[in-house]
Amino acid sequence: MQACYRKLRPYKYQLVEDYEVSIPIYGEAAEESFIKLSETGTLFIKKGYAWDGPSGPTFDTLTFMRGSLVHDALYQLIRMELLDFAYRSDADRIIRDMCLEDGMNRVRAKWVYWALRLFGGSAATPGSQKQDVVIRVPKGE
Fold this sequence. Notes:
alpha+beta; two-stranded antiparallel sheet; 4 helices; about 20% strand; globular
């Protein structure tokens, strides 16, 4: 039997326990293997979910991590067309608000929000998901 694995690049982080949060997206339900959004605005992200953390010319700080997790999950639902592209602006506001809740400087949070508004569209576009690289190693090699 062969061993199969995948490289996690471009991902940098992986949840080690389930995460649940209420977000202001109501009346929509979406689900994929690691992410579930309920019509009541509850976002559930399962243990094992991998994401790339804060993107762009920035630093991965504690004030940015939770927001980047939720934002990446929402963008993934949009890319997969499980959530309408119109919710991209909501996802961008949610990351800003979560970063502020977690203690990020207001100027930085505003910069994050506007950078996403100006340059984040391609990351949410359906079909823009980077494909996993799957490596198959035959037994005995």
